[in-house]
Amino acid sequence: MASYRDDTALKALRGRDVLSLADCSPQEITALLDLAAELKSERRKRSLRRSLEGQTVALIFFKPSTRTRVSFDVAIRELGGSSLYLNAQEMQLSRGESIEDTARVLSRYVHAVVIRTYAQAELELFAKWSSAPVINALTDSFHPMQALADLLTLRERFGELKGLRLTYVGDGNNVAHSLMIGGAKMGMDVVISTPEAYRPDPAVWDKAVAIARENGGSVRYVADPKEAVQGARAIYTDVWVSMGQEEQRAEKLKAFQGFQVDRSLVAAAASDAVVMHDLPAHKGEEITEEVFEGPRSVIFDQAENRLHVQKAVLHAVLGQ
Length: 320
Ligand code: CP
Ligand code: NVA
Description:
Number of helices: 13
Bound molecules: phosphoric acid mono(formamide)ester, norvaline
CATH class of the largest domain: Alpha Beta
Structural class: alpha/beta
Strand order of the largest sheet: 7-6-5-8-9
Distance between the termini: 12 Å
Radius of gyration: 19 Å
Largest sheet: 5 strands, parallel
Order of helices and strands: HHEHEHEHEHEHEHEHEHHEHH
Shape: globular
């Protein structure tokens, strides 16, 4: 068994919920990234750790998913556990059974619950009533598994996260929130560029700024995207219309004019800057097809890394 750089930090995650990266210390995030990198290289050598043997993980989805669903499912299987995909629309939850009761019942059957839902408060309520650990697979507020995969991708590319400037351009949404928190934990210089009306949630902002201060990083708002990407080693964007916001589509498309990641924006960043997107992408809206397909894109590395970081999280929470 390989030895991890910070076994104590990893051990501290055992049995815990992961509802936001704010729940994890910088040491714990680093330990998860180290473990994810080990698991990634072991998988390439076709060596798998069966640390979830005999354990079942439920995957409850209230929203669609390709990457999260499949990468969690594969992660659980490769670790030797069993996965159970549950479409929330087909559960008694959709007929009014409470979250409190659902959580108490399911956690008598399974060893952990991965949830994709709307309100962060509902995820937190589920976690409060569940005797099994709960992992956030995206809410309207946060997407911590995505941010972990993004941090791993950046670390693979640049080695060191501390001081690294990442500029997020677009909607101040769940993905932006988790990047702000995760980046702040790792001492990065996170720059957010959004239309004024779509800035990140003020409570998340204040939290991220405070976390950055504690860890020698920064979280800053720069309205003009061209100015915001100056010196950036990563330009990150996400869809302008997130799941559940479909009725705001026309209004948002208008508000985000000028926030597209295109060739000229990439040219204004550092010469070695990478382009990131959590996917799915709406090419021609938040990113041009040319940049999406271009040589700076690490988008599919991010998608792959979802598998490795989620394995690390499952191993840390359930497998040690
Ligand atoms: N990036 C991401 O979470 O993708 P899915 O919606 O396909 O899971
Ligand atoms: N912000 C997007 C991310 C999808 C993975 C959404 O919430 O729909």
